[in-house]
Amino acid sequence: MSLASCPVRAVVRLRRQIRNLKKSKLHLDLSGPRSLETRHARLLQKQISLDKTSFFNTGLEKSQYFSFDTPSLEQMSQLSVLKPKRKKKRRRSRTVLYPGNSRKYLPIEQKSKAKRCLILLIAIIFFQILNAIENLDDNLQKYDVDGLEKTMHRDIFGQKLAVDTVMDLLKDYLATHMHNKPLVVSLNGPSGVGKSHMGRLLAKHFRSVMDGDFVLQYYAGHNCPTETDVLSCQSDLSGKVSNMVVTAEIEEKIPVLIFDEMEEMPLLLLDVLHGYFQPNQSNEFLNAIYILISNIGSNGITKYVLQNASSEDLSQHRKRKELVSIIESSLRQHHPLWDHSEIVPFILLEKSHIINCFLDEMLREGYYPDNGNIENMASQLKYYTQGERHYSIMGCKQVVAKVNLLQ
Ligand SMILES: Nc1ncnc2c1ncn2[C@@H]1O[C@H](COP(=O)(O)OP(=O)(O)OP(=O)(O)O)[C@@H](O)[C@H]1O
């Protein structure tokens, strides 16, 4: 029995094992795809680890002995796949992080003395500039330059260029009291265009804003007629000019000296004036304004105006430049004193300006300004005709005489 039971037990055991196997297989199928995946992954891992060991084993097999042989490219690529990648080193940030709840103490700044001095210097310069600007305005207000400008534009007809030029020169000069040379302005142009008229307006204005002692009106033909001894004229002129500039300097005023009919002035007097215009003199002679009125170079101006009668678009600046260049040579030929002067050309007056002169004069004399009457009187004067333009040959010179005939 015992002999017969051995093979039977073996058969039973085998059957049990087969059943168990079947059961386990069934269990595996029921546990789902996830377990399958993990199993699969485990199997793969196993496979990889086997590959690794086999590779290193083969590598070790090959390199039982140390050598300097460089590995082949293939080996290198395999190694690089297997090697874990090195982490990149992080750069340290440079900013210093302070804990939020604590105060940070910065290094104490050392105060530079040079920096302080520089700031002080800048402040001083700034205040000085402000002060200077205020002073400039004060000076211009002292001489009421704006008032003068208004009067000139209102009372002088057809000479905008001349008025603007004179006003610019006066504004520049009167802004300060310290000068390195006197201001010499030469008014030039044909007869009756308003040169002496401007001279008179200037004298009147400066007499009203300063003491009358600081304005001189000198008419060469009247103050030093041909029959008088020129030497006495010379001492008279020198005395007048010296006295005026000295007293003006004491009172910090700028005297205005107006010389009319310069074309009639004797050479000796021209030389005296020339001496006053030099820059290398004592201060009182440097702070003075000289106005020289003459008709020297007037023929050149008349010719220029008539030739350019049609050119409306000529700029003021260009006009002045061209006119100055025309009369400059005539003036310098007359006497070198004009080398030191600012030349202001006066141009011919048109018929419309002559009508304004009549209107002005009639109102001044108390006449009713009848347009017909004015037109009639204006037509009696002589004109240069260029196209549609009529330029008065004698300017407004005969206006006073014509109005006087109305009585
Ligand atoms: N542009 C002008 N605007 C207003 N009035 C003028 C003008 N020009 C001349 N007059 C009048 O004509 C008169 C004579 O002019 P003014 O004495 O100024 O001539 P001038 O240019 O000095 O000429 P001259 O060289 O012959 O002396 C003046 O008293 C003035 O009333």
From TrEMBL:
Keywords: ATP-binding, Membrane, Nucleotide-binding, Transmembrane, Transmembrane helix. The keyword ATP-binding applies. It is a single-pass membrane protein. One of its GO terms (cellular component) is membrane. The keyword DNA repair does not apply. Its main location: membrane. Belongs to the ClpA/ClpB family. Torsin subfamily. This is Torsin-1A C-terminal domain-containing protein. It comes from Pleurodeles waltl.
